Amino acid sequence: MATPIISINDLHAHVGQTVTLQAWLYDKTPKGKLIFLQARDGTGRCQCVMFKGDFDEATFEAAKALPQESSLTITGVVKADPRAPGVPGGFELGVKEIAIVQTSAEYPITPKEHGIEFLMDNRHLWIRSARQWALLRVRATVMRAIRSWLDGRGFLEMSTPILTPSAAEGTTNLFEVGYFDDKAYLAQTGQLYNEANIFAFGRVYCFGPTFRAEKSKTRRHLTEFWMVEPEIAFCDLDQLLEIEEQFVSHIVQTVLRENANELKTLDRDVSKLAHIAPPFPRITYDDAVAKLIEMQAGLRAGTPVLRHDGKPLEGIEDPALLDITWGMDFGAPHETALTQLCAKPVFVTGFPTAIKAFYMEPYPGRPEVCKSADLLAPEGYGEIIGGSERISDPARLEERIREHGLPMDPYRWYVDLRKYGSVPHSGFGLGVERTVTWICGTEHIREASPFPRLINRMYP
RNA sequence: UCCUCGAUAGCUCAAUGGUAGAGCAACCGGCUGUUAACCGGUAGGUUACAGGUUCGAGCCCUGUUCGAGGAGCCA
Q1: Rounded Cα gap, residues A235 and A352, in angstroms
Q2: Which CATH superfamily does the domain covering A125-281+342-448 fall into?
Q3: Banded pLDDT at A170 (limits 50, 70, 90)
Q4: DSSP code for A156
Q5: Which residues in chain A, range 435-454, keep a C-beta under 7 Å from any nucleic strand B atom?
Q6: Interface confidence (ipTM) of the complex
Q7: Which position among A61, A318, A321, A434 has the lowest Cβ density within 10 Å, counted as fewest Cβ atoms?
């Protein structure tokens, strides 16, 4: 009689029943007349137990010799047993039949420790490992939460081009590709096109891969990453920040609700995420610079400014890393220091106009700062959102394009948008992998992408 | 582009300038509750590459390649 084929994450609903799993062997522990097989099927992992007396000699010996990652169908009775390891765990299969689909070749990734180069060379296999599996499941939840939140609030998903004729903010960081007899560049943002889209649809977002040819070699950078960019008509910077904090909170809370097992696998301290809810604190660039100067002085004087939880700052080995004067952009150490002052993500608003993109609206009466806001994730994870209110006046926009030394022709259509019913409008871009890295509490962004592209890595 | 560190068995790592070693994986044997099981045994090496110093180099020197971490820039 055929038994039902079920997923490991559905085991709890089949206690006492005979079911079939289609799975791979994650690990095994043979113990003489008893074998523990740990099976994974993409939805979870569970222990399957074989007793020698239940099988003929050949079947039992074959099972005992199975290499890691062999593919199997296993039929048995589901039992609740608190001793059973796995994800979600607590259930095991008392094996009645086992069929080997393929006996795996010797599998390179053992349950022991490995170096990062080896693991990256074997990324196509590494994604099967518990930690990577959990991370990428969280990533999928993050992407789903992004879409469902925006779709539920009147945002229309609009695809923006990946092949673009020129840069929004200079071409040095762009990948150049041949385009018949011409050149094209891989998009580093869909924002400008989204600004056209809002005049047709009101609120839109684009969601796709983004490319940066930066020669960055840090734990925060990929050359190809996914970014969601909402853009909203009739929206100023203050309204934008409210949207951002609700959006980010929704993403975090969705992962907490749906990926508890994954976060446990990752050993993530969820108490650092549970309280993520609006409102997020706001600090102006002016105040942030003053705070950084104070923090640097504190470190040097031996009377350091403490973190939000009362502990000393971490990750600032040398106070000189906090060097800053008004007008400078923040580096990673500045972000690391600032984010430790707060348990929630923090908005830094009003950056100097000179260090930001040409399209950002200056503050009335104070044109040296603009209506921009970065959102910095806690625990030193850094910038996950960059956003701003865009210039709505055509003359001012043209002026800013000239000041940046950009050619006017490619931006003709962009200026055009301000001539036909211009309105205050704002938008932001959220980096998916950085968000996943923060939520998962992971060291390096490369683990937040299934097949990360890094400055020195395109294989596999 | 710059700074720092690294490269030894399939993997993770040891080895005062003096015979190249362990754990895991593989292979053989044992074990009915393991959680990276454990116990016994077998096999496994062009010490990244090129040159130099030395009686003798995995180790010291020079260069190259590759990798890791960080800076700048950014999400």
Answers
A1: 21
A2: Bira Bifunctional Protein; Domain 2 (3.30.930.10)
A3: low
A4: E
A5: 444-445, 454
A6: 0.89
A7: A318
